[in-house]
Amino acid sequence: MTVRMKDLAKDLNLSVVTISKVLRNHSDISEKTRERVLQRMRELNFRPNLTARALVTGRTSMMGLIVPDLVHPFFGQIAKSLARTLRKKGYGLVISSAEEDIALERHEIEHLIARRVDALVIASGEESGEMLAVLEQQKIPYVLVDRQVAGLQANFVGVDDREVGLLATQHLIQQGCRRVAHLRGPETSPARGRIQGYGQALQRHGLTMRDAYVVAARSSGDRAEECGFEAMQKLLQSRPRPDGVFCFNDPLAVGALKAAQEAGLEVPRDLAVIGCGNMLYADMLRIPLSSIDQDTGSIGENAGKLVLSLVEAAAPPKPRSVLVTPRVVERMSSNRLGR
Amino acid sequence: MTVRMKDLAKDLNLSVVTISKVLRNHSDISEKTRERVLQRMRELNFRPNLTARALVTGRTSMMGLIVPDLVHPFFGQIAKSLARTLRKKGYGLVISSAEEDIALERHEIEHLIARRVDALVIASGEESGEMLAVLEQQKIPYVLVDRQVAGLQANFVGVDDREVGLLATQHLIQQGCRRVAHLRGPETSPARGRIQGYGQALQRHGLTMRDAYVVAARSSGDRAEECGFEAMQKLLQSRPRPDGVFCFNDPLAVGALKAAQEAGLEVPRDLAVIGCGNMLYADMLRIPLSSIDQDTGSIGENAGKLVLSLVEAAAPPKPRSVLVTPRVVERMSSNRLGR
DNA sequence: TTGAAAGCGGTACCAA
DNA sequence: TTGGTACCGCTTTCAA
After folding, report:
1. Residue A312 domain-assigned (yes or no)
2. Cα distance from N-terminal residue to C-terminal residue, chain A
3. What is the pTM of this model?
């Protein structure tokens, strides 16, 4: 059926070994033989069986990627730039969407291990890092993206979340907001970092952090906007009412915008809003949404480079953290200075 | 390092064959032995090497998916539901983003073949179907999604594009439009189908199709909106001016909306707009966008079922086409009746 | 410069 | 019910 090295060998009156060497550009092959072999390979459309190669070399040239949700453009973007970076070095990428389900995430990681991927890139929904212990133990290199796991020193690529919180909050303050609220995300490292930056920004400007101005919201999945809507309603009952809100991500911010408008507030005059993620179409909303750009392309690329360095290293190097720089994208929802 | 069947066998004083049989639930193993083996497997966290298995069985239990662009939520959605369907049957999914580049698409298909995926699901950017000939020849089952290839009878899952065009155009007509224009997409099967439906709808209502009312636009990639913008500007110069426009996809429609507003028209009163794809956030735009929903989840699921049936079939069955039913989602951009 | 032999970690077939 | 042996398609080592 499909042509194998053995077939080529017989066809050309050579040994399988010679074919194999030509294929991998070994030096100890005469130019004449090499040409003859390459020629025939092309003619017969020969493709070496990568599973066979993997079995003997112990390396599949495949990496695995686990994301919580492929539909979220944030992860789509990461997958894309990661795949591109790996492809340049001849690596393939197996992508698994864990659908925000921890049990499934574990299952998928197990599956990828069984497939003998050379390394994993994981945007984990898991809090505990239990699964990661398995990876450590089996000495399978991995890189965490977006979310870190508490108490674990691992290779990580993501945005500097403290900086995100700082930038967003500072931006609102610079726009003249004095009562800045925060719609915080779930208990994960990004949410913790961002709220930390939020606090720092307030402090630097001599503003006090008030508990009533910080409301938690479930930020993921399809219902994120609703959550943002409800959380914002709650926030609007505080007195004095906030005049600015920094939202953990863009879907929450969209919900918040809706709640503000429904309450008869004018954005950004009565309430300035900024989100995070700079999602596609953010500038096409009823009120174009200001946001913090996380440079997902660069996250994917850096994760790729990092994971490549891991598989190519002889001994496992000391875990590294690569932090990508966030950037304010100002649009109408926070523009109170009318510039 | 990692534990193999050989290790288990030695450990339990059994043969490798027995271990293998237990693993695959062979019947001819005593209950006692089976338990003993399973027990030890769990203890040692044994995972069979799937590359080894693939080599001997000739099947990898992996499918490949090629999409033009992973960031496009349309394809993200398909990838997700496809992966879910396959996972239930123990299949993994390798996803490749061809980045709208035909040469790359071919390269990636070659790569997946070399990895010996059991079958492919392809949303191809290729017009000619040249690559597909290779698949046919190598007898690798494949399913086309979203786009068909002209002159090729292949397994296909997608929306009924003629119906899409019909629904969208009819909807505009029902909203009172009499001069319905069309922003058509590139020369692919969906664009052809939709324009056909567009023509049929006009005809059914006794309206004539005017060349000046049909403008082509590059619909993919990051610049889609701009293209929609420009195409709409062109359209608005026709006299009499159209009072409704059916756009090949949502990004084009967004650009069209912008052009209309910039020209001082009021949507939907002066111009009703409907897109296609029902993208996320369509209802959060300045003017919420009416659209045709293509039920991507169902496309992915059906593609999964179809491709599973292919790999499980003894002989290659006759190519089947599965058409998913589109559905109008009415929002403000086309609501001229004020309901 | 070329190739014979020994595996890689499993599965299939058939004998014990 | 259990296991010996050959083999999947390729790479590695070492001898010719």
Report:
1. yes
2. 68
3. 0.91
